[in-house]
Amino acid sequence: AKSDGKAQVALFHANMHKRAVAMLDLENDLRRALDRDEMLLHYQPIISLDSGKIVGVEALVRWHHTDRGVLSPLDFIPLAEETGLIVPIGEWVLRRACEQMAHWHREFPDRPPLQVNVNLSSRQFAKTDLVDSVTQVLAETALDPARLKLEITESALMENAQRSAHILEQFKRRDIQLSIDDFGIGYSSLAYLRTFPIDTIKIDKSFIIDMVTNRDNLEIVRTIAALAQNLNLDVIAEGVEAPDQLAQLRALGIEYAQGYLFSRPLDTAAITALLRQNPAW
Ligand code: C2E
Ligand code: CA
Ligand code: CA
Ligand code: CA
After folding, report:
1. pLDDT digits (tens, 9 = 90+) for 19-58
2. How far apart are alpha carbons 258 and 236 in whole angstroms?
3. Which residues belong to any copy of the EAL domain (predicted)?
């Protein structure tokens, strides 16, 4: 039994070692991913519940790893944040998304203008040259700033609320649209929310998923909707998967939705085809 224990300890260490090496491998691969052109964007439509039409898309990054296949952001964004690699990756995402949106504007000149939503991580948000670098990407891609909406999580904004308000003001002055992401799971106070010059609140999918069966979550969604209305903000519900959720959102007067019920995130070719077809849900 004693030697068993020893063997187990040795195995444990071997596993730890393997895992540490695997993480290092992943970090090294992530460092090279941009140069190797392995990052790609998928786009998920955002739907106006009034018209049923697509009003915008959210850009969501994926990593096509040579050995591991396509990795979800949940598998590498935390590592990217930790290592600071999120800064160049985030810049690439922004540039790629703006280029694509400028391209769609040329391809669909008669369509009501779309917006592209781009996620900013807290690490990016903390960079002092963020506003300049976003401004530069917009200039280089010739995209109308009003067509770009930056999504910043409630928790990133609250890390330093005063500084956040100042940065958001600078974006606003440039006519860039702003959204609070994952709203409801953080801890913003009403007082702060009013000082942020934001356009949109995005209700986190954890509230939407079981809203129909979970009374508490329904009340949270109702409260957020009322709050947004008072502050004259648009509301997007994310993670809408089922028709009964959609019916509930309509009953609450929520204007925009995003989720598998309408479409999964799609690669560039598939979302372009969907935009061309311009369906109404
Ligand atoms: P998020 O910003 O909250 O994005 C929404 C996530 O919900 C996406 O996951 C989307 O695919 C997923 N989703 C959409 N509709 C549904 C639905 O009906 N049901 C369910 N269960 N899920 C749905 P994804 O693409 O895996 O991204 C996960 C997270 O990774 C994002 O959450 C965001 O925090 C982060 N992320 C993605 N792209 C970027 C990026 O370019 N930069 C940064 N900083 N973070 C990113
Ligand atoms: Ca988001
Ligand atoms: Ca979310
Ligand atoms: Ca409004």
Report:
1. 777 777 899 999 999 999 999 999 999 999 999 999 999 9
2. 7
3. 23-279
Ligand 1 nearest atom to the CA of residue 120, by list position: 44
Tell me whether 0.85 is exceeded by the ipTM. Answer: yes
Q: Are 168 and 134 in contact (CB under 8 A)?
A: no
Q: Point out which residues pair with 65 in neighbouring strands.
A: 69
Whole-number Å distance between alpha carbons of 57 and 48: 11
Residue nearest ligand 1's atom 19 by CA? 239
The CA 121 to ligand 1 mean position distance, Å, reads: 12
Measured from the Cα of 204, ligand 1's closest atom is 3
Q: Which residues pair with 119 in a beta bridge?
A: 151
Instruction: Evaluate: CB of 61 within 6 angstroms of ligand 1.
Output: yes
Q: Which of 128, 127, 149 is nearest to 138 (CA)?
A: 149
Of 259, 164, 255, 157, nearest to 206 (Cα)? 259
